[in-house]
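How a chain folds remains the central question behind the approach discussed here. In the encoding step, the backbone of a single protein was reduced to a row of integers, each denoting a local shape. We regard such an encoding as a compact summary of how the chain folds. The sequence in question and its structure tokens are set out directly beneath this paragraph:

___
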Amino acid sequence: MSSAFLLFFGRGGPSDVERRLDAIKIAIGSSVLRRARAAGFHALVAVTGDAEARDAFATAGADVQPPRTRPFHFGEEVATIAQTRSLERIATIGAGAGALFTVGQLAALREELEQSEALVLSNNYYSADFVAFTPASALRVIDLPATDNPLPRRLHQQGGLSSRQLERSAATLLDVDTPPDAAVLVRHPACPPELRDLDVWDRELGARIDAIMRIVTMPERELVIAGRVGAPVWTYLESQTACRVRMLAEERGMQAAGRDESGAARTALGFLYREIGPERFFARMGELGDAMLFDTRVLFAHLGIHASGEDRFSSDLFRAHAIGDPALRAFTAAAVAAPYPLLLGGHALVSGVLWTLVEAAWAGQPEP
């Protein structure tokens, strides 16, 4: 009843910031593979067409193969691997996720899988980054998804597998997709030693993150959180932060529904931004709290900003001068001038990253 562990990696864009983020994801993927091996997974398979990633994953003990689909289709890749290797118990993860999983946690997941006949485990039933399931033959009766996000739901609803969502924590929720995700990761006390020395833009983001981590432990302060915030995060913050929290939750499921690409996404903050402009917008946000975590992709969709990955990440790093898109450059310049701690990012910033930040804050990182 051995289990296989599948890891997937594909490169982002060619800019320096995107390549550095890819290097971080490769390091995380290599670290997770080593822990999966120590946790007793019998077969490690890494799927990538990238030479740097191939060498790193092979060194970590994985059998590395290139993707067989063009364009890449996650479900077909997993189904083909399961068939050609005669696998029945499979765990899948993307490079960048699982950085805080311990060997013990991975071993417990493997054991649960091996003791089950028809089960799918996931870190998020509706939008998964980690999925483990058995039997793999269930893949033959479902609509194979192009990405990993809907796989647990389809295995449950179409394949008839019992479903369990993993307990929410920094370990299960954190997926490094943007620069601030990585910068928060290295501050968590459970960050593996081999990842602590990664170059994670500490000069641009370190002081901001540390200031927000202090604020979450202070009863007299208030934290503003805006974006695609789910109810579990809200519940967690209610019980695990000392500060007051002001939540502006909008456009959950925006990408899955295609509302960002269609131009249908709307946010109250977007209407305010259009009315008063970037400088006054950040001034108003400062009146709502002492610090802010901002899932900016919702605002960008409302404003019709379709920037490159390089520009989006430059905004996350407060590098206004490096941004080509004029609307995004004006937004970022105003964010730089905001006189309070502010973090910009994607959906992960107001989910797994926020969870990680709070756990790290109470663990004494940084020192008062």
